[in-house]
Specification:
The complex is a heterodimer of chains A (310) and B (503). By secondary structure, chain A is mostly helical. Chain A has one domain. Chain A has eleven helices and no strands. The longest helix of chain A is centred in the middle third of the chain and has 32 residues, at 115-146. The mean pLDDT of chain A is 88. Chain B folds into two domains: 5-118, NADH:ubiquinone oxidoreductase Nqo5 subunit (Beta Polymerase, domain 2), CATH 3.30.460; 184-502, Orthogonal Bundle (Cytochrome-c3 Hydrogenase, chain B), CATH 1.10.645.10. Helices cover 40% and strands 17% of the residues of chain B. Chain B contains 16 helices and twelve strands. In chain B, strand 11 (446-453) and strand 12 form a beta hairpin. The model of chain B has no long low-confidence stretch (mean pLDDT 88). The chains are: A mainly alpha (310), B alpha+beta (503).
Chain lengths: 310, 503
């Protein structure tokens, strides 16, 4: 319960902080932290415009997309406090709930019949597919390491139970970076995509939602804030020590979210995005880095006596 | 060819020549001569248009001889109801010009590869509606078509782009323009007052105000037999170079924005402002409107203006240099710029491309150096040339030209010529039955204005060529085989004019 409240709180400020960091990095003042929220609220008040060629899928997709994101965020625990949805193998459920939302968005984009959106949909589907193994490699490695298969079980057992803290924190740090990068790819942010360019031929996610307007667009915009916070929450969970108390956990949670937002802001300020055909390489590199965690996990669990969860 | 070389007349930039001095050739000889003139790349087609002559059309060809610094004029009389063989079939650089003649006079070419009206001006009767003209099409299921525009997503200017793609790869891009057609050339004849005409010339392309106003003014002065004084030439050159600096800086900002390099986007965007603000403090308009007038200047350049410009440059230069050096050294930017949208020198020569895209492949086409006029005659301009022909080269050439213009201006303003007496040219008579050609190197490339007067000395035909006329097709060639997601970047690296093309 605590975790979903924290995630929603973080999601309210996340994009605002990213934009603020970007503005400051380019020597500008920038809008207030809450400006993205105001934009979302403004959009939510508007009525939607629907093309005659699009059908029911296009209308329901944004709501389902947001629904899947909220459902997925219910799985995330806060340290050893389980999320509202917590069961064995819930991280598999987490990944595929997100995938379901994405699938809906992809077919909704195809539903519009626009050649841009078809292009965006194909790119989004392609990059998501490449991205999938990375998340599983990370969580699977931790399952091997801890012998647990749920988010809360893994987070509770990661530090201070048999494995030396040096090893577990190193792996947590590496995994946190990978999860953050996965979050950026999932959210179609730099360096894979740039939501700011607004060139329909170049974008991935933004081009898919060109036809969405009003409340639907507001939902999609909020979902992307929430997605950042969800991935930030997973990354934060890797650093929480069991029994540390709510305020310590919440402190770690917000610190990691803040670092994530600032990191995203800097990344988007000081480098150019990749050429589209180099994106897969970037994603492969992320996936390859997860192998380090896997090897580390196998090695460390061997020392700790090897606790395979299955 | 040598036996036909006597059938041409050579003039200098901004020179007026009597129409009867321009030789009239047999059509077959005419296209053969002109295509062979431009074939080796030492000369290029500057303008090619038709002038009504009774029941016939007189096709006039203006070829710029880059080595000799001359302009070669020749013409041919053709009946406009009989199909002709096309010069495009002999050399591709005639392609947009023959389409222009076709759309204006309905002249039919038998072997033109893509005889479709260029922009379809309203008011001229055509058998078909524009939508009935074909676009390139494809068969089979592995290809798909992406249509962009005519309404631009960023609501700049309208143009229609059709991509035929195989996945992410562009096989062909067809660019259809004409949505900005305003009938500018006809207005030059309709509007009789000189002030109206020069204001009109400033509006040909809003981003090349000074370039087009200078081209018109020099052409009109040449028709009146007026030689601009030193101060007048000085002011024009200064205005042109300031325009170049401002627009190039803005282009670098947009190029950085297209690869999502935020720092470059923000810093260059800010740096454009002091330059255009300076133009405003000088002539009352940020884009230079009102600065250039035939025979006169309303805003003489003073030493106080020079002092404030030095101050602005001293602030501009360190920031600009630091940002430009950072931009071109940043690996992620290099990864996007390099080897994107490559044009080969052969393609450039075949298409008759001018301006920065031509210079970025090492083709030396710069009016300031090959056909200097006015102040440019007082020194030897060395154009910046790069060999690669990719987006990086087109961006980097802008950087080099900004620095070059800045050092030129710094040198210029140390010696401001004495102010000349303003002359009112509106009462002066233009040379009758003459052709006048004026070439100006705008920031985008070579601008060519040409006018023909009737026997009373009134302008009977006014023809404008923006460099975009040559270069739009070069853009289509540059994205061929590239990823469709690189199109916006390639497009920005050319930054061509819609309204300058559509007129």
């Amino acid at each position: 319960m605590e975790s979903i409240i924290l995630i929603i709180t973080a999601s309210l400020f996340f994009t605002g902080i990213v934009i603020r960091v970007k503005s400051m990095a380019s020597g500008r003042k920038g809008p207030g932290i809450l400006q993205p929220l105001r934009d979302i609220a403004r959009n939510m008040k508007k009525g939607g415009v629907y093309s005659e060629t699009s059908g029911i899928i296009f209308k329901i997709a944004p709501s389902i997309y947001t629904g899947t994101l909220i459902t997925a965020s219910l799985c995330i625990p806060l340290g050893d406090r389980p999320g509202i949805l917590s069961f064995q193998w819930d991280f598999v459920f987490f990944v595929y709930t997100l995938a379901l939302g994405k699938f809906l968005m992809v077919i909704a984009a195809l539903d519009t019949g626009s050649s841009f959106e078809g292009m965006g949909a194909s790119r989004e589907a392609f990059f998501s597919m490449l991205m999938e193994p990375a998340m599983f490699m990370v969580m699977g490695s931790f399952a091997i390491l801890t012998g647990k298969t749920s988010f809360s079980g893994i987070f509770a057992a990661l530090h201070g139970t048999g494995i030396s803290n040096a090893v577990s924190y190193t792996m947590a740090a590496l995994s946190a970076i990978i999860i953050m990068l996965v979050g950026m790819v999932e959210n179609s942010r730099m360096p894979v995509d740039d939501p700011k360019t607004h060139l329909e031929l170049t974008m991935i996610h933004e081009v898919m939602i060109l036809d969405n307007s009003g409340f639907d667009l507001g939902l999609i915009m909020y979902s992307s804030c929430l997605k950042f916070a969800v991935f930030g929450a997973v990354a934060a969970g890797l650093f929480m020590k069991p029994g540390a108390g709510f305020f310590a956990d919440a402190g770690i949670f917000f610190l990691v979210q803040l670092c994530y937002a600032v990191f995203t802001g800097f990344m988007e300020s000081f480098m150019a995005r990749f050429r589209m055909r180099n994106n897969p390489q970037f994603i492969y590199t992320i996936t390859a880095a997860t192998l380090l965690i896997f090897i580390g996990a196998v090695h460390a669990s061997g020392i700790a006596g090897g606790k395979m969860p299955w | 060819m040598t036996d036909k070389i006597k059938d041409i007349v050579r003039i200098k930039n901004c020179e007026t020549v009597k129409l009867d001095r321009i030789p009239i050739l047999q059509y077959a000889d005419f296209i053969e001569l002109n295509s062979s003139l431009v074939k080796d790349g030492m000369r290029h087609l500057s303008h090619y248009f038709a002038a009504p002559a009774g029941k016939n059309l007189r096709i006039i060809s203006i070829v710029a001889d880059d080595a000799a610094g001359d302009i070669i004029c020749s013409s041919s009389l053709v009946p406009n109801d009989r199909p002709l063989s096309s010069a495009t079939a002999l050399h591709q650089s005639f392609h947009p010009f023959e389409r222009d003649i076709h759309e204006k006079y309905g002249l039919h070419y038998t072997d033109h590869p893509w005889l479709k009206p260029l922009r379809f001006p309203a008011g001229i009767k055509h058998p078909k509606d524009m939508t009935e003209y074909p676009f390139y099409s494809y068969e089979g299921e592995d290809l798909h078509e992406v249509g962009v525009g005519p309404i631009h997503a960023g609501v700049i200017e309208p143009g229609h782009f059709r991509f035929i793609c195989n996945g992410e790869k562009v096989l062909h891009l067809e660019i259809q323009l004409g949505y900005q057609h305003r009938g500018v050339e006809e207005l030059f004849i309709k509007k009789k007052s000189l002030l109206e005409r020069v204001i009109l010339s400033e509006s040909i392309a809003g981003d090349t105000t000074n370039g087009n106003a200078a081209a018109f003014s020099q052409l009109y002065e040449s028709l009146c037999g007026f030689r601009p004084g030193e101060h007048l030439s000085f002011v024009r050159t200064l205005a042109l170079e300031l325009e170049r600096m401002a627009i190039h800086t803005g282009d670098l900002s947009a190029l950085a924005g297209d690869v999502a390099y935020q720092l470059g986007n923000a810093v260059f965007g800010r740096l454009r402002t002091p330059i255009i603000n300076y133009t405003q403090s000088w002539g009352g308009n940020r884009l230079g409107r009102g600065l250039i007038r035939p025979g006169r200047t309303n805003f003489p350049y003073t030493s106080e203006l020079a002092e404030s410009l030095v101050k602005i440059f001293n602030e501009y230069e360190p920031h600009y240099t630091e940002m430009a050096d950072t931009l071109f050294a940043r690996p992620s930017v290099q990864a996007r710029f390099e080897k994107t949208g490559i044009l080969s020198k052969e393609d450039i020569l075949a298409m008759g491309t001018v301006g920065t895209p031509a210079r970025s492949t090492g083709v030396k086409r710069d009016i300031r150096s090959t056909h200097p006029h006015g102040y440019y005659l007082s020194f030897k301009h060395e154009p910046v040339l790069l060999p690669q022909g990719d987006v990086y080269a087109r961006a980097y050439i802008r950087d080099r030209e900004i620095r070059q213009s800045m050092s030129l201006i710094r040198k210029m303003i140390t010696a401001i010529p004495a102010v000349d007496k303003n002359v009112d040219l509106s009462e002066k008579k233009c040379a009758s039955e003459s052709l006048s050609v004026s070439l100006v190197e705008g920031w985008r490339g070579e601008i060519c204005h040409a006018a023909i007067t009737d026997k009373n000395g009134n302008i009977a035909l006014y023809k404008i060529k923006d460099p975009s006329m040559h270069n739009w097709f070069a853009l289509a060639m540059a994205v061929r085989g590239e990823e469709i997601s690189d199109f916006p970047l390639c497009n920005k690296s050319f930054n061509l004019s819609y309204c300058g093309h559509d007129l």
